[in-house]
Amino acid sequence: MSEIHTEERVQSDSPRPSGFYGITVPSSDLQQSKRFLVDVLCGKLLEENARRVRVDFTNFIITAEPQEGGVIKPHLEQPHIAFDVTPEAYAGLRERLHAHGVPTTKPWGRMGKPYALTYFRDPSGNQYEFFSPEGTTLEKVYGGRRGGDYVIDFPALAYDGLKDPANGGKDLPFTPPTGYNHNTSAVRELAEAKHFVVHVLGGDVFHNEPAHVTAWVGGFAYGVAPQAEGWTLPECVSPRFTFTVKPDEMDPMRRHLDSFGIPTSDVVTEDGTDARLYFRDPSGNMLELLCLNGYQGKTRSDFTLDPRELLYDQ
């Protein structure tokens, strides 16, 4: 872990998220999304209805919601979501992906680093990564930006839909991911995004490079990288990253956001128990604060989010 410099952390008494709930991704076909997350990636189905599919991956949840557009374009690297996997799961999950007709990168890494990576996409086009800190027994190539000669062909990761595996997939290894490793969001300007992550979200930076910053936010690794496009579209609500707050943290966080001139939604509820607040980063990435229960403030249940109202320019 890199040294955290003074300018890369906020005071401990500043409001900040207390945890990380999960990520909501756009889906062009909820049944395909369910198959991908459950049958291919070995996640545990928590909820399935016409509004969403919600799947548990041990320490975070991926939710797929129907949405027209807003998926990462084929040639882009960000945003992506990285699963933490063991070497055994790295090989097993690659086998599961290929059996279902999902193209992947080669097993790859960076010179001088032990870990192994694999990029792939879901049927809707959302990009994911396997990150094996302990590496892999598979033959590994090295990325061209870090001393190797492997250049990822991102458009080649796109495909039309899942295939049926041989023998119904009964012969495939059941090797679920360990959980969440990190995410990397696309941002228009890295210094601006870093300031937001540190001073607004209360993140502690541990990876600070000219083309990539990652910080601990709510105890989880939240990354940003500059790109010409790829953030949540103005008319869309996902991709969306959800952090958790305690009941007495929601209102201070809302005032904290307001002090930076960041528009927020009303505090809304879906089931009368939870409390949710929506906002964006300066690039436009949609974020959410979630209090699962115990919030005593006023909430609205008759609320339709207009994502354009959360846009701002700083």
Give the topology.
Blueprint: E1 19-27, H1 30-40, E2 44-48, E3 53-56, E4 61-66, E5 80-84, H2 87-99, E6 108-109, E7 116-121, E8 127-132, E9 141-142, E10 179-187, H3 190-200, E11 204-209, E12 212-217, E13 220-226, E14 240-244, H4 250-259, E15 275-280, E16 286-291
Parallel strand pairs: 1-4, 5-8, 6-9, 10-13, 14-16
Antiparallel strand pairs: 1-14, 2-3, 3-4, 5-10, 7-8, 11-12, 12-13, 15-16
In short:
The chain has helices at residues 30-40, 87-99, 190-200, 250-259, and strands at residues 19-27, 44-48, 53-56, 61-66, 80-84, 108-109, 116-121, 127-132, 141-142, 179-187, 204-209, 212-217, 220-226, 240-244, 275-280, 286-291. The protein is α/β, with parallel strands linked by helices. The chain has one domain (1-314): 2,3-Dihydroxybiphenyl 1,2-Dioxygenase, domain 1, CATH 3.10.180.
Structure notes:
By secondary structure, the protein is of the alpha/beta class. It has a single domain (1-314), classed as Roll (2,3-Dihydroxybiphenyl 1,2-Dioxygenase, domain 1), CATH 3.10.180. 14% of the residues lie in helices and 29% in strands. The strands form 3 sheets. A 7-stranded mixed beta sheet has the order 2-3-4-1-14-16-15, with helices on one face. A 7-stranded mixed beta sheet has the order 7-8-5-10-13-12-11. The longest helix is centred in the first third of the chain and has 13 residues, at 87-99. The radius of gyration is 19 Å and the shape is globular. The two termini are 31 Å apart. The model is unreliable at 1-7 (pLDDT under 50).
